[in-house]
Amino acid sequence: MTRKLFGTDGIRGTANRAPMTAETALRVGMATAAHFTRGDHRHRVVIGKDTRLSGYMLEPALMSGFVSMGMEVILVGPMPTPAVAMLTKTLRADLGVMISASHNPYQDNGIKLFDADGYKLSDDVEAEIEARVASDMTADLAGSDKLGRAKRLDDAHGRYNEYVKQTFPKDMRLDNLKLVIDCANGAGYKVAPEVLWELGADVVPVGVDPNGFNINDGCGSTATDTMCSQVVAHGADLGIALDGDADRVLIADETGRLMDGDQLMGLIARDWAHRDALHGGGVVATVMSNLGLERYLEGIGLELFRTQVGDRYVVETMREGGFNLGGEQSGHIIMSDYGTTGDGLIAALQVLAVIVATGKKASEVCRVFEPLPQLLKNVRFSGGEPLDDDAVKKAIAGGEDRLKNSGRLLIRKSGTEPLIRVMAEGEDENLVGEVVNDIVSVVERVAG
Question: What is the reported pTM?
Fold first, then answer.
């Protein structure tokens, strides 16, 4: 079955415009409840959200859909995506829902679904739910005496706080470290600064005043200049930037130099391998990860296994191959010893554990390899399939021929936005730029 409603990370779109409307949310709640209702027990769903204004529209719509099908709803309010995955599992719920568009601006929102074990749903399950959304679900409605109820879980915040702290080595503290934490005015705005402070750090909070409109606005992991400048201004030892739902992280050293997800995976992999804690003989990443990471891992006896873009595809490969570390260049770091999805705060703590253990500055620890020149450009399109155009195909073939064995070319359509992403990397920076720009110019002409 094909999917039109679901993308690479759930359902996403402009709030109050199809498909991200209250009506769609209601039907998604109903369809998901119908799919996951198995047996005679009282079924439960956990619903969390980030700080977008449209969350106030989507949350009650989803809740109504679940209640109408007889499900009990547990509302946890603004919480990181990994917190919802964790609570779904620990509360023995049948599924979890996160209302968030991650790193997108406030105008967008999304719906992410988790199964009872806290994992994002497979393509096949999403396709089945999508088919139900388009069907008549009248026969599945609960009887008047079987309707569900909704309640708020008042201590959800504290439960996640303690869960995160348990992932940090018990013999370590963050005393004498000054840390900038940029929460993107998003879902981690309360818990992230608290966790770092409780572990002993001197915390400089940034992006912790959400108003419904300022999520990811000039802050967070997609606008890291704010975090980097604050590190320098405050003389901090490290900067941490989360995204809107706190499932990804980027880090800056004490000089304000940024480290992406590839650097963080390389650092954690080296540390875990040294302690015989790394499983699977390597790291799982996507096709977007830098070739420099692959070469670095090979140099320390590890392997890089690539998947298509999307953290849930990384997780699927990790589960199939018995890996416990994977992620994306964008900062999704999945550590299966600690969770079922990317967790920006836990990943940051793993990096801090290395810094504390070595007693060295972040600039001496965090940059473990020199990345190959890589350039990514996005082309927005309004309709059609630009990648099917003959001129675009010819430009791509020409770019591949020019790079040959000295680099890589990756062209793909975004699964969350109407964008064509053009990425190339290689040893010759000028050639990489020429190849990307040539292809982008043709795609722009075709996309109109």
Answer: 0.91
